[in-house]
Sequence to fold (310 residues):
Amino acid sequence: TVGCVAIDSSGNLATATSTGGLVNKMAGRIGDTPIIGAGTYANPLCAVSATGKGESIIRHTVARDVAVLMEHRGLPLKEAAARVVADVPRGDVGLVAVSAAGEVSMVYNTAGMFRACATEDGYSEVGIW
Amino acid sequence: MGWAIALHGGAGDIPRSLPPERREPRMATLRRSLDLAVAALQAGRTALDVVELVVRELENCPHFNAGKGSVLTSDGTVEMEASIMDGNTMSCGAVSGLSTVVNAISLSRLVMEKTPHIYLGFHGAEAFARDQGVETRDPSHFITDENIERLRQAKQANRVQIDYTQPMKAQPPTDDNSRIG
Fold:
């Protein structure tokens, strides 16, 4: 799975996710990536792209839950994302997200996640573990 | 506030022992994709354009599980899927079951912008792709030797794998986690 989230200089948020799925999956199996609210979600508060075990991500509506914690609990992005990932079985999920405030979160409960980020104030990061 | 971007190339049991010849091509693509995104944001491109162009870059890299380099079904075929969403308008598009479309993410954006629907799958999505004139290739274009080997190992171990769960060696799986999808 690959994904990207962004906020532009005008404050617009967007997310995109694409995948081949799981090795040895059954023909016709749909994962979390194309399910809006599971692997991919964006609203005026945040944009989220998830990766990992699709069945678990769908069950926990991961991407939408990040937005819900921000919207209804008033949590900042990093805390919302960390809380959602902590509630998903270990080894099943990673996500990248940005908020309308320009916050970035890259969090996972797997052994690693190929990831990268950059912000206008000059911060950037590329990592695996 | 200013612009911000984050991208991923998949999560899973990525071993810290991943050899440089498998790690470096992926890290190089992450850096190249990040540079592309930063340049586009600095040029004033919209967030929607930026997320699409980054995912296209990652789909076209055979080292990531999407587009070229997608993993294989138990039938040894490729079934690609993608989705895109605009935060301000909540518009979104999604596709599944693609076997010939080079950039599934661009087709999902066309579903969002050119149809009254959100999600098209399988032969309907393939027909829409031909109707829209997006780039398509023979399914064999997306299949790599590495993923043929991964499918063989997964079948041998009789399990599905997350993006980077490394196939277990001969010994039986030590925990349930190693047998998950």
Notes: Chain A has a mean pLDDT of 98. The helical segments of chain A are 54-59, 62-73, 77-86.
